[in-house]
């Protein structure tokens, strides 16, 4: 079940909202927590029902491990608990990849059963590891079981983040805003959700046709011009932006509707003037997790510049592998590790900031090049696209023939660029709306515009459906 689906919008969400508020009204906070946890399991099982057992088992085992770690303060127990979570993630996400690697290297056929990747396993595994580590370090204490179940399973963040930390959510469950009707929260949440829905359905899904067209043409052996390759990759660059931004807006909007403030996960990353700033804005909660639970334990920047850069590379390589079981994801992470290293060396030894336009443009081009590996099915395809981008393919540089509606695609790209670089951040805009900081005329115009865009998105969903969110596969 997708947020951008009629099943969710006119079926699941109204029932979940009404049920949560009625439960809170008649049974208090515990009733609302229980109802929303149950609804979240229904949401999760909609995709592949057997994995509801996996999710419930992972939550139950980790809760018991957390209590045991808290009682014993055992480093060995904490290590085993983290290893169990990584082992579960490794089996479902990387076993097939490792089998292929062994087969390629040794020639031995490693037969594995078909493995269906559980939705959101990378996200809820990291959430539970953070909880276990904090319990061991004395930064948290095991609370009520139902609160922990809710923390991990709450459906707005379950499938593709944000990676919610226990200290960000559990304290809010005792506040009177949770699962109770507050007009300002519901209005702001619906507004943010509508903006996210429009980003996903109207922009990301439209841009997907350009990206898919490029990679499909290459897979068929069609000659690709430099212009076609750059247009296709810019389509993908904006597609993943609006796809992830749209999901993040919808997740945070849903949180507000239920009276919870989830952590921001996306802050206009293509407005970054350098790669360091990009990683402060893109997938913020993943970057925070990798910083707190990997980079800093490795020594961070406290053991000299060389060790700092080594730590950066380790974090980015593992961050790339977190996104997918394939060497192309490792290369994507390595490229960003290289970018970050160069950026830090430049700042350390030069101290000269590039002009704003130059910094913005250079950062964007670096990100586009890295996305080639992220989107490609394998190295051969990635290098073929890169070769085309540098003008190394047979067709004329400016040929534009592989896209069915190139003029429309260019118009969508131009509109997307205006939104990406000149429109205000949607979360900031809705926050100002929620605080009453917008002039009444502008607030009214914002609501009306969001309503029209949401209606257009709903019509498009009815007519042609929607693509799955890109981050669902992680």
Automatic annotation (TrEMBL):
Transmembrane segments: 48-65, 77-94, 145-166, 215-239, 312-335, 355-376, 397-423, 443-463
UniProt entry keywords in alphabetical sequence: Acyltransferase, Alginate biosynthesis, Cell membrane, Membrane, Transferase, Transmembrane, Transmembrane helix
Pfam families assigned to the protein according to its UniProt record, in alphabetical order: MBOAT (PF03062)
Any one of the GO CC terms: plasma membrane
GO terms classed as biological process: alginic acid biosynthetic process
InterPro entries: Ac/AlaTfrase_AlgI/DltB, AlgI, MB_O-acyltransferase, MBOAT_fam
Pathway(s) per entry: Glycan biosynthesis; alginate biosynthesis
Single GO term (MF): acyltransferase activity
Localisation per UniProt entry: Cell membrane
Membrane topology, record value: Multi-pass membrane protein
Family per similarity comment: Belongs to the membrane-bound acyltransferase family.
Name of this protein: Probable alginate O-acetylase AlgI
Species of origin: Sulfitobacter sabulilitoris
């Amino acid at each position: 079940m997708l947020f951008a689906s009629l099943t969710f919008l006119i079926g699941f969400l109204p029932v979940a909202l009404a049920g949560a508020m009625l439960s809170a009204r008649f049974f208090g906070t515990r009733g609302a927590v229980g109802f929303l946890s149950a609804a979240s399991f229904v949401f999760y099982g909609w995709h592949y029902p057997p994995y509801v057992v996996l999710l419930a088992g992972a939550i139950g085992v980790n809760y018991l491990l957390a209590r045991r770690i808290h009682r014993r303060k055992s480093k060995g127990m904490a290590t085993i608990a983290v290893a169990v979570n990584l082992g579960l993630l490794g089996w479902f996400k990387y076993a097939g990849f490792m089998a292929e690697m062994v087969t390629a290297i040794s020639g031995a056929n490693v037969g594995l059963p078909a493995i269906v990747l559980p939705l959101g396993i990378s996200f809820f595994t990291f959430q539970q590891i953070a909880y276990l580590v904090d319990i061991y370090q004395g930064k948290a204490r095991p609370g009520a079981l139902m609160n922990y179940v809710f923390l991990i399973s709450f459906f707005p963040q379950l499938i593709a983040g944000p990676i919610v930390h226990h200290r960000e959510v559990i304290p809010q469950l005792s506040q009177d805003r949770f699962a109770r009707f507050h007009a300002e929260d519901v209005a702001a949440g619906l507004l943010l959700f509508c903006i996210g829905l429009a980003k996903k359905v109207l922009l990301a899904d439209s841009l997907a046709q350009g990206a898919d067209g490029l990679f499909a043409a290459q897979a068929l052996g069609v000659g690709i011009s430099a212009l076609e390759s750059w247009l296709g990759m810019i389509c993908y660059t904006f597609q993943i932006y609006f796809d992830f931004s749209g999901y993040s807006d919808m997740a945070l909007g849903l949180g507000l509707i239920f009276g919870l403030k989830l952590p921001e996960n996306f802050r206009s990353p293509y407005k970054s003037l350098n790669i360091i700033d990009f990683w402060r804005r893109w997938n913020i909660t993943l970057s925070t997790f990798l910083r707190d639970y990997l980079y800093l334990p490795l020594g961070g920047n406290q053991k000299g510049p060389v060790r700092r850069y080594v730590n950066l590379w380790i974090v980015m390589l593992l961050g790339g592998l977190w996104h997918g079981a394939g060497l192309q994801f490792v290369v994507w992470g390595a490229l960003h590790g290289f970018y970050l290293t160069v950026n830090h060396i430049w700042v350390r030894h030069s101290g000269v900031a590039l002009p704003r336009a130059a910094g913005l443009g250079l950062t964007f081009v670096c990100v586009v090049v890295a996305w080639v590996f992220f989107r490609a099915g394998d190295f051969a395809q990635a290098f073929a696209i890169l070769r085309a981008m540098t003008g190394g393919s047979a067709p004329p540089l400016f040929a534009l023939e592989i896209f069915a509606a190139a003029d429309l695609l260019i118009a969508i790209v131009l509109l997307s660029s205006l939104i990406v670089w000149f429109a205000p951040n949607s979360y900031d805009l809705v926050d100002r709306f929620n605080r009453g900081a917008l002039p009444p005329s502008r607030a009214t115009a914002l609501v009306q515009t969001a309503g029209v865009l949401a209606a257009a998105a709903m019509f498009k969903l009815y007519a042609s459906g929607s693509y799955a969110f890109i981050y669902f596969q992680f």
